[in-house]
Amino acid sequence: MDPRLARTREAALNAAAELLADGGLPQLTYQNVSRAAGVGRTTLYRHWPTTPDLVLDLLQTFRMPSFEWIDGDLNARLLHNVELQRSKLLDPEYSAVYRTIQSVALDQRVRNALVTINKERVQSVVMVLKPDYDLTGRSADVTDIFALINGPFIQMTTFTGSSSERLTNAVVQSVLAYLKETTTSPDAGGTAQERR
Q1: Successive 10-residue mean pLDDT values, the chain, 196 residues
Q2: Which domains does the chain carry?
Q3: Do 28 and 1 contact (CB within 8 A), yes or no?
Q4: What's the pTM value of the predicted model, to 2 decimals?
């Protein structure tokens, strides 16, 4: 990619994220992005013909991190990764992008992009949990886990701009409870349904 083009795109995307953080979706107009980024509106329309196109590009730029493997038990691995997700959502621009995604998620292009973008994250969750719980091929369960983790932090950052260690621990405990209720642990023998 031409370096000038890359700089223009980066400036526009950063300006869009800042506008979202400052005033939400109503502030995400081509006029505002143009002014804040110092690029012409024609250039913006050339790159992003519609606002959902711009939001999709923001989603690519401000991706939530994949889960990381660390040595330790399941609780330690979850705590580390929940903290990783929480720290991104405490960043005002990440938080603003993800709140915006919630408001345009009914757009089929946005939904399709979310599925594509999150494939790597889904696999990373499966990898981090696999020694204790096998979620291979169970993307609905992984989606539930993302909701259990990110939902409370999106809520807190939206209303307070912060989050507590107590909430982080509660999120980890809710994920562990969900896993115990819906999946099989190699130590448990049988499926969750069979143990009931």
Answers
A1: 87 94 90 96 94 87 90 95 89 84 82 85 91 91 89 81 87 95 62 36
A2: 3-60 (1.10.10.60), 63-185 (1.10.357)
A3: no
A4: 0.78
